[in-house]
Specification:
Helix content: 25-40%
Radius of gyration: 23 Å
Number of domains: 2
Number of strands: 14
CATH class of the largest domain: Alpha Beta
Oligomer: single chain
Distance between the termini: 52 Å
CATH superfamily of the largest domain: Dihydrodipicolinate Reductase, domain 2
């Protein structure tokens, strides 16, 4: 098949409307929103006015729409697994918002349904296409920073929440809501390695019963240690990114990055010495640093648009989903390990 992919969006909330619907409108040469579903009538009317589409009050009616080729599951987190499986069984391709599911067992059932149906299941880990992350990957892969020792990925804010995403029964909490982003990025950097997972989960400011402070450390053999913090209780936010390497380092955030490094051949040759230092000082190298930077520009394509560009090619011309299902499953595996290790009272 060629031409536009006919899309049905399930759920017109924050992500369904502000991310998916908006992005597909920008990519109107490749996608056409032909149907939506949402229990709120005002949201359905808004979609009809903008897209001229059909609108249903329930998800089940959406997946029965014969024109829909691709269903976007942007319903509340605890419904991701059942809605995804329903759509796959209705012979639809599926984009499922993060978190993929509420637990690893649900994720495995989703993958099983995708394999059985022969349709594409793509989990919306758009952070893997974020401009800052792609630049950091480029710098790390270039080898300029030498052997990478430590990577910190911090998402710090100070803010209460009191919506449905603060409740365990809806699959809420900061780990599944925002923690999935740095976890996915970390796993892609580490590759297919056997992991050790340390986690600390705490409830601080949220009005719900789910965690809003997450600390994760991932360790694998012959790999950098990755330190992740996602918290809503930090009054003094630190940089989002810190990369420590043997030939240099990188620091920055989603809008701006800077890094410096040196050529090892530019340093004088040294030998280990145990004799007293003549001036009683520490050893010191005058390092000829090379400094570079990156800044987000207005013309930079959004992570969501990059995801959907790759998805279009995969559906229309064959290939793998933008995010490998194995990686998406491994994100759920890390989340499962965190919940096993920590009990939130």
């Amino acid at each position: 098949m060629d031409g536009k992919i006919k899309v049905g969006i399930g759920g017109l909330g924050r992500s369904g409307w502000n991310i998916h619907a908006r992005t597909l409108k920008e990519l109107s040469d490749k996608y056409e929103v032909v149907a939506v579903s949402d229990p709120l009538e005002e949201r359905r009317k808004e979609a009809i006015a903008i897209f001229g589409c059909r609108a249903y009050s329930d998800f089940e009616s959406l997946v029965k729409d014969e024109e829909v080729e691709l269903v976007i599951v942007a319903t509340p987190s605890h419904l991701h697994a059942p809605h995804t499986i329903t759509a796959l069984e209705a012979d639809k391709n599926v984009v499922c918002e993060k978190p993929m599911a509420t637990n690893l067992r649900e994720a495995d059932l989703m993958i099983e349904a995708a394999n059985k149906s022969g349709r594409m299941l793509a989990i919306f880990h758009n952070s893997l296409f974020a401009p800052d992350y792609l630049k950091i990957k480029e710098v790390i892969d270039s080898g300029k920073l030498g052997r990478i020792v430590l990577i910190k990925i911090y998402n710090h804010v100070f803010s209460r929440r009191w919506d449905w995403q603060t409740l365990k029964k809806f699959g809420g909490g900061e780990l599944r809501n925002n923690g999935v982003h740095p976890i996915a990025q970390a796993l892609q950097i580490l590759g297919n390695k056997t992991l050790e997972v340390f986690c600390d989960l705490r409830k601080t400011l949220t009005l719900g019963d789910a965690e809003d402070h997450v600390k994760i450390v991932l360790r694998a053999e012959s790999s950098p240690l990755i330190d992740i913090e996602v918290t809503r209780a930090c009054a003094y936010p630190q940089n989002k990114w810190l990369v420590i390497g043997t030939h240099g380092g990188l620091v920055g955030n989603a809008e701006s990055l800077r890094w410096k490094y040196f050529n090892p051949a530019s340093l004088p040759e040294r030998r280990l010495e145990i004799e007293p230092v003549p001036d009683r000082s520490y050893n010191f190298d005058d390092i000829p640093w090379i400094e570079e930077s990156w800044h987000l520009t207005k013309v930079s394509q959004s992570s969501a648009a990059m995801f959907y560009e790759k998805l279009y090619l995969a559906i229309r011309y064959g290939g793998s989903p933008p995010v490998p299902l194995e990686l998406a499953r491994n994100v759920m595996w890390v989340i499962e390990k965190c919940f096993e290790a920590c009990r939130i009272e």
